[in-house]
Here is the input.
Amino acid sequence: MVISIIDGLREYLAECPLLAEIPVKDRHINWTQANIDKNYGIFPDGNEPLGEPYINGTQEWEYTAQINVRKFDDTDLKRLKSSEWLERFQRWLSEQVKKKNFPEMPEGCTPYDIEAPNAMLLEQDETGKRSTYAVTVKLTYTTKN
Here is the structure.
Protein backbone atom coordinates (compact mmCIF):
# COMPACT_ATOMS: atom_id res chain seq x y z
CA MET A 1 0.00 0.00 0.00
CA VAL A 2 1.34 3.44 -0.90
CA ILE A 3 1.15 6.31 1.58
CA SER A 4 0.30 9.06 -0.91
CA ILE A 5 -1.50 9.47 -4.20
CA ILE A 6 1.54 11.03 -5.87
CA ASP A 7 3.66 8.01 -4.88
CA GLY A 8 1.09 5.61 -6.34
CA LEU A 9 0.83 7.71 -9.49
CA ARG A 10 4.62 7.79 -9.89
CA GLU A 11 4.86 3.99 -9.58
CA TYR A 12 1.92 3.52 -11.96
CA LEU A 13 3.33 5.81 -14.66
CA ALA A 14 6.72 4.10 -14.43
CA GLU A 15 4.96 0.97 -15.76
CA CYS A 16 3.91 2.79 -18.94
CA PRO A 17 6.15 1.52 -21.77
CA LEU A 18 6.48 5.10 -23.05
CA LEU A 19 7.94 6.30 -19.74
CA ALA A 20 9.70 3.07 -18.75
CA GLU A 21 12.42 3.82 -21.32
CA ILE A 22 13.49 6.76 -19.14
CA PRO A 23 15.94 5.62 -16.42
CA VAL A 24 14.65 5.68 -12.83
CA LYS A 25 17.24 8.30 -11.87
CA ASP A 26 15.66 10.67 -14.43
CA ARG A 27 12.08 10.43 -13.06
CA HIS A 28 11.42 13.30 -10.69
CA ILE A 29 8.76 14.88 -8.50
CA ASN A 30 8.22 18.65 -8.95
CA TRP A 31 11.17 19.23 -11.28
CA THR A 32 12.92 18.18 -14.51
CA GLN A 33 16.58 18.39 -15.50
CA ALA A 34 17.19 20.93 -18.26
CA ASN A 35 20.49 19.44 -19.45
CA ILE A 36 19.42 15.79 -19.85
CA ASP A 37 17.95 14.50 -23.11
CA LYS A 38 15.10 12.40 -21.70
CA ASN A 39 13.66 12.89 -18.25
CA TYR A 40 10.35 13.72 -16.68
CA GLY A 41 8.80 15.17 -13.58
CA ILE A 42 5.39 14.75 -12.02
CA PHE A 43 3.92 17.97 -10.63
CA PRO A 44 0.91 17.59 -8.29
CA ASP A 45 -1.72 20.14 -9.21
CA GLY A 46 -4.65 19.60 -6.86
CA ASN A 47 -6.96 17.24 -5.06
CA GLU A 48 -10.55 18.45 -5.12
CA PRO A 49 -13.86 16.94 -3.99
CA LEU A 50 -16.45 16.46 -6.73
CA GLY A 51 -19.90 17.43 -5.48
CA GLU A 52 -21.28 16.54 -2.09
CA PRO A 53 -20.67 13.30 -0.17
CA TYR A 54 -23.18 10.53 -0.72
CA ILE A 55 -25.51 9.54 2.10
CA ASN A 56 -23.30 6.50 2.84
CA GLY A 57 -20.29 8.79 3.45
CA THR A 58 -18.52 8.07 0.17
CA GLN A 59 -17.01 11.12 -1.52
CA GLU A 60 -15.75 11.43 -5.12
CA TRP A 61 -12.44 13.25 -5.60
CA GLU A 62 -10.32 14.34 -8.55
CA TYR A 63 -6.54 14.39 -8.24
CA THR A 64 -4.70 16.23 -11.00
CA ALA A 65 -1.03 16.24 -11.82
CA GLN A 66 1.04 17.44 -14.72
CA ILE A 67 3.78 15.34 -16.27
CA ASN A 68 6.52 17.38 -17.90
CA VAL A 69 8.67 15.37 -20.29
CA ARG A 70 11.93 16.86 -21.59
CA LYS A 71 13.12 15.57 -24.93
CA PHE A 72 15.75 16.47 -27.47
CA ASP A 73 13.92 17.61 -30.61
CA ASP A 74 15.49 20.20 -32.84
CA THR A 75 13.58 19.43 -36.04
CA ASP A 76 9.96 19.36 -37.11
CA LEU A 77 10.23 15.59 -37.59
CA LYS A 78 11.39 15.09 -34.00
CA ARG A 79 8.63 17.42 -32.72
CA LEU A 80 6.10 15.39 -34.70
CA LYS A 81 7.42 12.18 -33.08
CA SER A 82 7.10 13.83 -29.67
CA SER A 83 3.50 14.81 -30.45
CA GLU A 84 2.81 11.22 -31.51
CA TRP A 85 4.30 10.09 -28.20
CA LEU A 86 1.81 12.30 -26.35
CA GLU A 87 -1.10 10.74 -28.27
CA ARG A 88 0.18 7.23 -27.56
CA PHE A 89 0.41 8.09 -23.86
CA GLN A 90 -3.22 9.26 -23.86
CA ARG A 91 -4.27 6.01 -25.55
CA TRP A 92 -2.25 3.97 -23.05
CA LEU A 93 -4.18 5.55 -20.16
CA SER A 94 -7.47 4.89 -21.93
CA GLU A 95 -6.51 1.21 -22.35
CA GLN A 96 -5.65 0.98 -18.66
CA VAL A 97 -9.14 2.24 -17.72
CA LYS A 98 -10.72 -0.42 -19.93
CA LYS A 99 -8.60 -3.06 -18.17
CA LYS A 100 -9.46 -1.52 -14.78
CA ASN A 101 -5.73 -1.13 -14.14
CA PHE A 102 -5.30 1.86 -11.85
CA PRO A 103 -2.57 3.27 -9.60
CA GLU A 104 -2.18 1.81 -6.15
CA MET A 105 -3.81 4.24 -3.74
CA PRO A 106 -3.57 5.02 -0.03
CA GLU A 107 -5.88 3.10 2.27
CA GLY A 108 -9.53 4.07 1.83
CA CYS A 109 -9.12 5.45 -1.70
CA THR A 110 -10.57 3.58 -4.69
CA PRO A 111 -9.68 4.83 -8.20
CA TYR A 112 -12.16 4.41 -11.04
CA ASP A 113 -10.92 6.67 -13.85
CA ILE A 114 -7.65 8.11 -15.12
CA GLU A 115 -7.19 10.20 -18.23
CA ALA A 116 -4.91 12.69 -19.93
CA PRO A 117 -7.35 15.32 -21.24
CA ASN A 118 -4.64 17.48 -22.76
CA ALA A 119 -1.05 17.22 -23.89
CA MET A 120 1.05 19.92 -25.52
CA LEU A 121 4.41 21.48 -26.15
CA LEU A 122 5.03 23.57 -23.02
CA GLU A 123 8.34 25.26 -23.80
CA GLN A 124 11.43 25.11 -25.94
CA ASP A 125 14.92 26.27 -24.97
CA GLU A 126 16.52 29.22 -26.73
CA THR A 127 18.50 26.95 -29.05
CA GLY A 128 15.41 25.04 -30.16
CA LYS A 129 17.16 21.77 -29.35
CA ARG A 130 15.28 20.75 -26.20
CA SER A 131 11.59 20.95 -25.53
CA THR A 132 9.36 20.25 -22.57
CA TYR A 133 6.02 18.59 -23.21
CA ALA A 134 3.22 18.77 -20.63
CA VAL A 135 0.51 16.20 -20.05
CA THR A 136 -2.30 16.79 -17.54
CA VAL A 137 -3.35 13.60 -15.78
CA LYS A 138 -6.71 13.44 -13.99
CA LEU A 139 -7.27 10.60 -11.53
CA THR A 140 -10.81 10.22 -10.20
CA TYR A 141 -11.42 8.16 -7.09
CA THR A 142 -13.75 7.66 -4.15
CA THR A 143 -12.99 7.71 -0.47
CA LYS A 144 -15.09 6.83 2.55
CA ASN A 145 -15.35 9.70 5.04
Observations:
- The helical segments are 5-14, 17-20, 76-98.
- The chain has one domain: 5-144.
